[in-house]
Amino acid sequence: MSFANLGLVLIGKQGAGKGTQGAELSKHYDIPHISTGEMFRELVRLESPTGKELKQYIAKGELIPDETVIKAVKERLSFPDCAHGFILDGFPRTITQAEALSDLGTPSKLDLVINLEIPTRLVLQRLTRRRVCSNCGANYSLDSPPKVPWICDVCNGKVTKRVDDTEQVIQKRLHLYEDQTRPLLQWYKTRGLLVDIDASRDSNEVTRQIVNAIDQKLKDKKDSKVSNNYEDDIS
Ligand SMILES: [Zn+2]
Questions:
Q1: Which of 86, 123, 120, 112 is nearest to 196 (CA)?
Q2: CA pair distance 179, 183, nearest whole angstrom
């Protein structure tokens, strides 16, 4: 079986499960899950030209401009592990970035944008119940606590609530998200690339829904290729 190329973008509020779904899809399709934060850290570590640029902004605590973010994505997508595709998480955030992504000239092109829809009420519930190991970053929640109360299973570190996981701060982040992301979702919708997924369900069920949507898209892509070839044959 030949591997189909697959370019994917995950969009969703914090707490919608982008990290979990990205990891599952990465395993399933054998393509890298690239979250923007990790990508920045990786390029800085590699000391590539873009990495050096990023390092300056990060050191000064400045917002990284679109132009540099786009350069970073372009560089990351040219790595050999992206030969058969990619899963982007945290990029694009703006229409300018989305336009750039459709014109990067990388081997794999964007096929689908998965919008993980989750009601604000549920985000608040998930995030205010979330607990994190202050030492290794392992995730817990009031519903799935560590074995010994609030001592990390992995490293014995102290498990606490993140300081920015208060309802007020989360609400503020969600408003920002809405302002920025709604136009982006609309932009992808008019281009026929957007798939809405109900992310409020069990995470295995969410993965199943996404895989179905992707496989359908890959099948359509294959079918249209076959019919194009056929037209070539008879002309
Ligand atoms: Zn820990």
A1: 112
A2: 8
Query: How many Cα atoms sit within 13 Å of 123 on the Cβ side?
Result: 25
In a domain, 142, yes or no: yes
Any idea what the CATH number is for the domain that residue 17 is in? Answer: 3.40.50.300
Q: Which residues are catalytic?
A: 18, 93, 130, 162, 173
Average pLDDT over residues 163-170: 85
Say if residue 145 is preceded by a cis peptide, omega within 30 of 0.
Answer: no
Distance 145 CA to ligand 1 centre (A): 12
Residues around the ion ligand 1 (C-beta < 5 A): 133, 135-136, 138, 152, 154-155, 157
Query: Residue 188 corresponds to which tokens in the numbers above?
Result: 């992808």
Kindly indicate the confidence band of residue 187, based on its pLDDT and cuts at 50, 70 and 90: very high
Segments forming the whole domain that contains residue 119: 6-32+79-234
Q: How close is the Cα of 14 to the center of ligand 1, in Å?
A: 21
pLDDT tens per residue, range 126-153: 888 989 999 988 889 998 999 999 999 9
**Do the beta carbons of residue 103 and residue 97 sit within 8 Å?**
no
Tell me how many domains the chain contains: 1
Instruction: Kindly give the distance from the C-alpha atom of residue 163 to the centroid of ligand 1, in angstroms, as a whole number.
Output: 17
What φ, ψ does residue 165 adopt, rounded to 5°?
Answer: -95, 40
Q: Say how many Å lie between the CA of residue 126 and the centre of ligand 1.
A: 20
